[in-house]
Design a protein that fits this description.
Hypothetical protein af1432; alpha+beta; 8-stranded antiparallel β-barrel; 46% helix; 361 residues; Hypothetical Protein Pfu-838710-001; 2 domains
């Protein structure tokens, strides 16, 4: 068993060309479950079988074996998912590191990705002049996903005026099914609406505001720990979808305890923790709060003061929490999603004031 620690980047310019010999790689996947893969690869004339586990903090557990080239050719042609990956790899030594530059062909033509393998996940490295944006956490650039959603698809969508370049993989499909099963009997407060409608709504907001696939998956699963199993469910999410998704779901959770601590205590702790949440998680948090606030506003207009009977903390507590969480999110960054949350919470507050005035007449 080996451990692979690597980071992945896009390239800028051609400064890497001529600094290393290229070897043609052809590879395909016999199995590609989320976070795990079984890969067959031809490296020039050499054939290998590779088994890779889920990524956590730039690190994968990995097994690799030499196999007969004839067997590999048969697997690539007859057993692997199509299209297979076709690329030329250039090894560029710089200092004590070796950068591997993959220039893709076929369905992924024009895509060039640079990878560097490290001896430690927290090692700081000096980036060469030809290195551009880091894409280590962007699942689109995983070879297994380039089989399902080739780079050509992104280009065609962009050329057709597509608003978003993220291509969703089978991991999203699994997350959607998993979320639906976890919340199968769960309804929205005060209604018969399946709870999954909220999860899909939050995921839609994350996607529309620039989220990547892992953020969208975290949006689908953001209530799973709090409402459907606590720490055991969080561990399951990490195994299925990786460490980054699990950490974002954890950031959306105000408790994993059962029974839950008192409502006000939970919310105060949650608010205090917003300053520590990373930007990826904040997008999911903001989308969740906006979707809930919009539902509260719509139901408040329809049902009046009886709405608050559904909620822990009742009216005063909910008004306090939504204003407080909006203020904390605005402290972290001013963006359209948070501004829309502010407008929605303000509309709820104005409606509450109008109801109070009407009650005095």
């Amino acid at each position: 068993m080996g451990t692979e620690i690597e980071r992945k980047f896009l390239t800028v310019g051609d400064g890497w060309r001529g600094r290393g010999e290229g070897v043609r790689y052809r590879q395909g996947y016999l199995s590609a479950a989320p976070g795990r893969s079984v890969r067959v690869r031809m490296e020039g004339e050499r054939a290998k079988l590779n088994v890779k586990g889920p990524r956590k903090n730039h690190t994968n557990v990995e097994y690799e074996y030499d196999i007969p080239a004839e067997d590999a050719e048969h697997m690539l042609a007859e057993l692997c998912e199509q299209p297979i990956i076709d690329k030329t790899r250039y090894r560029v030594p710089i200092g004590d590191l070796v950068w591997e530059i993959d220039e893709f062909h076929g369905e992924n033509d024009e895509l060039i990705v640079a990878e560097v393998e490290l001896d430690s996940a927290d090692r700081e490295i000096e980036l060469p002049e030809f290195i551009g944006s880091e894409v280590s956490h962007d699942p689109r650039y995983l070879n297994v996903n380039l089989c399902h959603r080739p780079y050509r698809v992104w280009k065609e969508r962009a050329a057709a005026g597509g608003a978003h370049s993220t291509a969703l993989s089978h991991k999203f499909e699994e997350a959607l099914v998993y979320a639906n099963r976890l919340h199968a009997w769960h309804k929205r407060k005060g209604s018969e609406i399946p709870y999954v409608s909220h999860l899909v709504g939050v995921a839609s907001l994350v996607f529309e505001h620039g989220g990547d696939e892992e953020q969208v998956i975290a949006a689908l699963l953001h209530d799973a720990v709090e409402d459907q199993g606590g720490r055991k469910t969080l561990d399951s999410i990490e195994r299925r979808f990786g460490d980054r998704v699990a950490r974002m779901v954890e950031a959306c959770t105000d408790t994993d305890q059962e029974p839950k601590p008192p409502w006000r205590e939970r919310k105060e702790a949650y608010l205090a923790d917003i300053a520590k949440k990373d930007d990826g998680a904040l997008l999911v948090v903001s989308a969740d709060k906006l979707h809930n606030a919009r539902a509260i506003l719509a139901d408040y207009r329809m049902d009046g003061e009886s709405l608050w009977e559904r909620f822990s903390g009742e009216r005063d507590g909910q008004l306090w929490f939504y204003r407080a969480v909006t203020s904390e999110l605005r402290e972290r960054g001013d963006n359209e999603l948070v501004r829309e949350l502010d407008r929605t919470v303000t509309a709820i507050e104005e409606l509450a004031e109008a109801c109070d005035a009407a009650a005095l007449e």
